[in-house]
Write a structure and sequence with these properties.
single chain, alpha+beta, five-stranded mixed sheet, 30% strand, globular
Length: 115
């Protein structure tokens, strides 16, 4: 199936092997995990994908925008590195604007991978 993916997703792993986005996904309910998973898969198979699913955040960072249970908004921040979509950071959005600490976390992880 991978050959059909235009931009296969990979999880960012820190130096101790932890994958923060995978761990975040595991903490979601099965229903929410399914919604986010479908949105990630849509981006993998249909890349490049624009709004409303994907939005460029600048400096090579993109977000996958999902509406999960209870009308909550989730975001998965990723970068295109090589021929992969690397899932860098994920969170439940509580304000209109993407919080600066979340953007900084994703940018920091992206820089680690590009060294």
């Amino acid at each position: 199936m991978t050959e059909l993916k235009k931009l296969p997703a990979a999880f960012y792993a820190n130096s101790s092997g932890k994958e923060p986005v995978r761990e975040w996904l595991k903490d979601l309910s099965p229903e929410d995990r399914r919604i986010v998973g479908i949105d990630i898969a849509t981006a993998e198979y249909g890349w490049p994908v624009g709004m409303p699913l994907c939005k460029p955040m600048g400096k090579g960072l993109y977000e996958i925008r999902s509406v999960i249970s209870g009308g909550r908004i989730s975001r998965v921040l990723f970068a295109v590195i090589g021929k992969r979509m690397v899932l860098l950071h994920a969170f439940i959005k509580k304000t209109q604007k993407t919080p600066k600490p979340d953007l900084e976390t994703a940018h920091k992880r992206m820089k680690e991978l590009k060294i």
